[in-house]
Design goal:
7 strands; single chain; 5-stranded mixed sheet; globular; alpha/beta
């Protein structure tokens, strides 16, 4: 499909675990578990790279697990400046390569966080040769998308209760 030799498509996904989010890059198969260690193991079993996404956004990541991931997201456009600084410091203190991401939920956020490589993406990421850069998204956009997610979650919960209640009434 892709005829541009300079355009590389990377299969990846973000997984919510008990210790926050993990990103897997260079994946070949779906990963269904939500357990941190199992997600990272499955990513590695596929020959992929694991990234600790936006550490400190929700809570402090257990440092004893840092050795399991390949990279740390040092910049996330949806994270606060101080949170990104802490993420960079975490990566530096454990000598982990860094990535940057937009975490875009709206089209105009795409490209706010970028990881720049010269030629071999996998190698440069793994070896810490990639450069990261970016600018924070407007906080109002983040608040708006969080509200949308909460409304969706509430709708799903109410929908499940309605379905369950309807089913119980039939019995």
């Amino acid at each position: 499909i892709n005829k541009d030799k300079d355009f590389e498509i990377i299969v990846g996904s973000e997984f919510k675990t008990e210790y926050d989010d993990v990103i897997g890059l260079f994946l070949n198969e779906e990963i269904n578990t939500k357990v941190f260690a199992e997600v990272v193991d499955e990513i590695h079993a596929q020959g992929g790279l694991s990234i600790l996404a936006h550490p400190y956004r929700r809570y402090k990541f257990p440092e004893r697990l840092i050795g399991q991931v390949d990279l740390i997201e040092g910049f996330n456009a949806r994270s606060a400046i101080e949170t990104n600084k802490r993420a960079c410091n975490l990566a530096k203190s454990f000598n982990k390569p860094m990535t940057a991401g937009s975490d875009a939920h709206c089209w105009f956020e795409i490209g706010k966080g970028t990881t720049v490589v010269k030629s071999n993406l996998f190698k440069e990421l793994k070896m810490g040769e990639a450069k990261i850069k970016g600018s924070e998204s407007f906080y109002a956009v983040h608040v708006f998308s969080v509200l949308i997610e909460r409304v969706k979650r509430i709708s799903r919960c109410k929908g499940n209760r309605t379905i369950k209640n309807s089913f119980e009434k039939r019995l």
